[in-house]
Amino acid sequence: MNVIRYYDHNFNANEWFIVISLIVGTLVVLKLPKRFTNKTTSVYLLCGVFTGFIFDHILSVLPVSYYDINDNSSFQLMDFLSHVMYAPFGYLFFYIYDFLNIKPNFSLLFILVWAFISVGIERFCEYIGIFHYQNGYNSYYSFAIYLVVQSVWVIFYRIIKAYGEKQF
Predict the structure, then answer these.
(1) Which residues of 140-160 are buried (b: 16+ CB within 10 A; e: fewer)?
(2) How far apart are CA 19 and CA 23, in angstroms?
(3) Is the CB of residue 107 less than 8 Å from the CB of residue 37?
(4) How far apart are CA 17 and CA 121, in angstroms?
(5) Is the pTM of this model over 0.85?
(6) Cα–Cα dist 131/134, whole Å
(7) What pLDDT score does 168 carry?
(8) Average pLDDT, whole number, for the chain?
(9) Could you tell me if 125 and 117 are in contact, meaning their C-beta atoms sit under 8 angstroms apart?
(10) 31-40: buried (b, 16+ CB within 10 Å) or exposed (e) per residue?
(11) Spatial distance between the Cα atoms of 45 and 38, rounded to a whole number of angstroms
């Protein structure tokens, strides 16, 4: 049974957070000194969008449906924009990792810090109405997901760093 649940009917904090995050995130990405090629930058931006989209759709649709995104349980434009909002966050992960020149033996510490930051942002998003948890889900489960995703991102970064844009 696919009943649409409504949480809100107004353009308020959750939508404003998405719009402002997109604008500020885009400006930050554009203003930061260039560290990667355009191709690599695009890939890092897409990492944020892709992983956000995949995990949000795995966890927020039937049969599991652990949470709804934004004002109701159906997919809307703001839901799509909330996935695009992950692009600057993902890019900043790679950018800061590269900027700080994190050595492999300190990668776990970096991942832990970013996982805590990610959960903090997610908790704020829950507070303002972007996420509506159900069926026993909470942000502690997301912490484990962030650890896995960001670990894969570090491996991916190391592969790109080692092989660059070489053709295979």
Answers:
(1) eebeebbbebbeebbeebeeb
(2) 6
(3) no
(4) 11
(5) yes
(6) 10
(7) 46
(8) 91
(9) no
(10) eeeeeeeeeb
(11) 10
